[in-house]
Design brief:
The chain is of the alpha+beta class. It folds into 3 domains: about 170 residues, Ubiquitin-like (UB roll) (Roll); about 110 residues, Uridine Diphospho-n-acetylenolpyruvylglucosamine Reductase, domain 3; about 100 residues, CO dehydrogenase flavoprotein, C-terminal domain (Enolase-like, domain 1). Helices cover about 30% and strands about 25% of the residues. Strands 2-1-5-3-4 form a 5-stranded mixed β-sheet. It has a 5-stranded antiparallel β-sheet with strand order 10-11-16-12-13. Strands 17, 18, 19, 20 and 21 form a 5-stranded antiparallel β-sheet that branches. Helix 9 runs antiparallel to helix 10. The longest helix is centred in the last third of the chain and has 19 residues. One of its GO terms (molecular function) is xanthine dehydrogenase activity. Keywords: FAD, Flavoprotein, Iron, Metal-binding, Oxidoreductase. This is Xanthine dehydrogenase small subunit.
Length: about 475
């Protein structure tokens, strides 16, 4: 089956696409759109940023994404905008003209990516209702020329976007059917419903599920891994739901971090700040909350915070559903409680009580767009000065995201005092035997974990501790 998408009003068709061929390679190759650059091939630098549009009723929802790790089947039925799309009749658009006039471009390699991120903000793309520095945090300038780029972004703050033709073109290629294809021994599927997904996995239990490809993309571009069967779930409508209850929040498996940002922030501000630092905007526009869980990484930012809040995971297959505590999903490094043909359907995060003591803190070598060295998450219930319940979870401290049982025991039933924190911090050191790697030594991680507990204590005593501002 061919992949079809809209580029500047035209229908582009790719017959028999390589299911792990990247959009970037297709742009720079067959389409000769060489303005889009390859800087890192891992979704980190933003030089390859494009805007991808999805039809949503009477409008197109645009979002900035990294084309270097976006597989071709993932753009089926969507609209695409590259840097070449912006200049009409050879004339620069207002944002490009502003960048040229104020010297925003130095070596120029990263410039197209910056232009696309800023254009996304100017037209009101998904996730761009953030301060300008946050919008371009996923774009790296190796010449350190951010000042003029920020100035251009502010001057070109709003651009009218007429999507009338794009809407008509998207409707012309929409068929509502499950897409699939076979290229030699390799197969791919793009189901449109969870029932279709369950049926595909029942027949192909070894197929690799791909949501945003922010992890699997690197298996291909960096690890050169060949994957025989892939199932793309980005178009599974009944996995894209966000439901807020008085009791908590349910996120479907296809909900991207950019879309979950505001609902998670409403659960607790620390969750909002955590999401703000999960990659750049392009990564949050592709990567999903449940994908971050499903891949089982010991340094995934989302799972420790959700474990501390008591989240539960719903797993589904053609045989039915089961719900488990989130922490039970992680068995060992690379091993999760997932049966053949089963997939993560949703996660439910309980709403913290108004008087709960919640703190989530991430330590990384670089503040933005970096992997955690240590991530600590704490959720206490305190009644009349006594800690009646405590959940403490960490990432980067073990082979999986894990609770700190000894620390929790040292806290529970004890007065919320400096003496209790001292004892709990000591118990915490016995909960983990972390590894030494490029992000930190074992000794550093143990000291940092204890320091994050102390950080919570000082914040609760009124100290001016900024949320998630500590760096390794």
């Amino acid at each position: 089956m061919a992949v079809r998408f809209i580029l500047d009003g035209d229908v582009i068709e790719i017959a028999d696409p390589d299911p792990t061929g990247t959009l970037l390679d297709h742009l720079r190759g067959p389409l000769s759109r060489i303005g889009t650059k390859e800087g890192c091939a891992e979704g980190d630098c933003g030089a390859c940023t494009v805007l991808l549009g999805e039809l949503a009723g009477e409008q197109v929802n645009w979002r900035a994404v990294n084309s270097c790790i976006l597989f071709l089947p993932m753009i089926h039925g969507k609209a695409l905008m590259t840097v070449e799309s912006l200049a009409g009749g050879g004339a620069l658009n207002p944002l490009q003209a502003c960048m040229a006039a104020n010297g925003s471009s130095q070596c120029g390699f990263c410039t197209p990516g910056f232009v696309m991120s800023l254009h996304g903000r100017a037209i009101g793309a998904i996730g761009c209702d953030l301060p300008l520095p946050d919008v371009i945090a996923g774009n790296l300038c190796r010449c350190t020329g951010y000042g003029p780029i920020l100035e251009a972004g502010e001057k070109g703050a709003h651009i009218a976007q007429d999507d009338t033709a794009t809407i008509a073109a998207l409707r012309s290629i929409a068929d509502g059917e499950m897409a699939s294809g076979t290229v030699g021994p390799r197969r791919w599927f793009a189901p449109r419903s969870a029932d279709q997904l369950a049926a595909v996995l029942a027949e192909h239990p070894g197929a690799r599920i791909v949501a945003g490809a922010t992890d699997v993309g690197l298996w291909v571009t960096k690890g050169l891994k060949e994957i025989e069967a892939l199932v793309f779930i980005g178009d599974v409508a009944d996995l894209a739901g966000i439901t807020e209850y008085d009791t908590g929040l349910t996120l479907g498996a296809a909900v991207r971090y950019a879309d979950a940002h505001a609902p998670l922030a409403r659960l607790h501000p620390d969750l909002g700040e955590l999401v703000r630092r999960i990659g750049g905007l392009q990564v949050r526009n592709s990567g999903t909350v449940c994908g971050n869980i499903a891949n089982g990484s010991p340094i995934g930012d989302g799972p420790p915070a959700l474990i501390a809040l008591g989240a539960s995971l719903t797993l589904r297959s053609a045989k039915g559903r089961r719900t488990i505590p989130l922490e039970a999903y992680f068995i060992d490094y690379g091993q999760q409680d997932l049966q053949p043909g089963e997939f993560v359907e949703s996660v439910f995060i309980p709403r913290p009580a108004p008087d709960a003591v919640i703190h989530v803190a991430k330590l990384s070598r670089r503040f933005d767009s970096d992997i955690s060295a240590v991530l600590g998450a704490f959720a206490f219930t305190v009644n009349d000065g006594t800690i009646t319940a405590a959940r403490v979870a960490f990432g980067g401290m073990a082979a999986t995201p894990r609770r700190a049982a000894g620390c929790e025991a040292a806290l529970t039933g004890r007065p919320f005092t400096e003496q209790t924190i001292t004892a709990a911090a000591e118990a915490l050191r016995a909960d983990f035997a972390p590894l030494t790697d490029v992000r930190g030594t074992a000794a550093y991680r143990l000291d940092a974990a204890a320091a994050l507990l102390w950080r919570l204590w000082h914040r609760e005593q009124g100290a001016a501790v900024s949320v998630l501002s500590v760096e390794a």
